[in-house]
Amino acid sequence: MTTARPPLSSRNPQAYGFAVTVLGVLFFFPDVLVVRLIQTDTMTVAVWRGVAAFVATALALGLFGRASLPNWRDLLRWPSLAMIFLQGIGSVFFLASLGQTSAANALLILATAPFIAAMMSWAILRERIDTATWGAIVGVFAGVGIIAAGSLGGGHLSGDLFALANAVAIAAYYVVIRMAPAGNLMPSIALGYLLTSAIAYPFAPMAPLDLNQIALIALSGGVILAGGCFLLQIGPRYLPAAEVSMITMLEIIAGPLLVWLFLGENPGLKTLIGGCVILIAITAHTLIKLAQSQRGQPA
Question: ∠ CA 245-90-102 to the nearest 5 degrees?
Answer without folding.
Answer: 75
